[in-house]
Design brief:
Elements: H1 27-38, H2 46-57, H3 63-75, E1 79-86, E2 94-100, H4 102-119, H5 123-141
Antiparallel strand pairs: 1-2
Helix pairs in contact: 1-2
Length: about 140
Amino acid sequence: MLGANAGTGANTCSAVKIGMSPRALGEFEQLILLALVALPAEDCYGVPIRELIERRTGRSLSAGAIYTALERLTARGLVSSELGAPTAARGGRPKRMYRLEPAGARELARSVQTLQTMSQGLLPQLELRLAGSTNRSRRKRG
């Protein structure tokens, strides 16, 4: 026998929540969140975030890319921001300070753990493939 509402057209599964799982972090978003972990709270604003990522990755980044990613992370509830005190060095304008939220820390930890799990034991194989592709490139040229 089906439930008491069988045949009545009533939805007996209304307690089931159907939804999409949260979107995984992209590589650039991971870099932003890692910078927020690495920097002291007083340095969690655009310029130091950009400088840290550039220094550690060797990439050249635009300020716009940093702020766009921070806005996206803020909209997802992974990062929050507030205006700091005005500074003379900035002509009396305040800095927008960013903070990693607990949800952001959880997403970052999950993302890093996934990469660690997937790469476990594979780095030697990757190095062999890289060495093989270098050898093939040399043979094609010479």
